[in-house]
Amino acid sequence: MRNQAISSVGGQRMAAMNFAGLRLAVPLVEVNSLVSVLDLDDSRSGASILSSVEVNGQELPAFGFDAELDLLRSVPDDYRVCVNLGDDNPELGILCQSVETLEQPVTEEALPVCMSSDHSMVTGLALNDGEILLCTNLSALVEYIATMDKSNAGPFLRSSEAN
Q1: Could you give the dihedral angle defined by the CA atoms of residues 98, 104, 105 and 107, in that order, rounded to the nearest 10 degrees?
Q2: Residue 122 confidence (pLDDT) above 70
Q3: Pairwise CA distance, residues 101 & 28, whole Å
Q4: What are 34-54's pLDDT values in tens digits?
C-alpha cells in the first residue's frame, strides 16, 4: 500500500535508466556513481544477484531488470552501465542499457489505484517531454529485490537486513 501514500512530489532531478523498451526514473540525489559493465564481477552472483561491483572499496550487489521489470538471471550483452544507488553510502547497483540525467525536474504523481501493487518497485509516474516515465527510489528497489529474493529462496539483500 506504500504506493498509494505518495501523492504529488515536488519537481526533482531524475536519472532515467533504460531497460529493454522501458525507462525507470530514480531521484538523481540517490545516484552515487556509474560504472561500466566491464568492471563487474559475476563470480559471486546468486539467485537474483547478477554481479557485484566495487564502489569506494566496498563490494555492492548488482541487479538488473527485463522489460517486465522482473529480475534478470544473467547480464545481457547490451547492458553497459551499472547505476550505483545510495547517496553517500552506496547500497546496490542496477544494471541497465544506458542512463541519462533528465534536463528538467519532473514531478512524480501517484500511481492510479488500478496500477498499484504491494510488491511493485514502481512508486509513481512522471511526464517528461511527452514521455511517461515509471518512477522508483532506492527504498522501493531494496524492498522489491528483498521480496523477490525471498520468493526465489536466493541470497537475501545485504542492505535490507539492517532495515
Answers
A1: -90
A2: yes
A3: 7
A4: 888 777 776 665 667 888 888
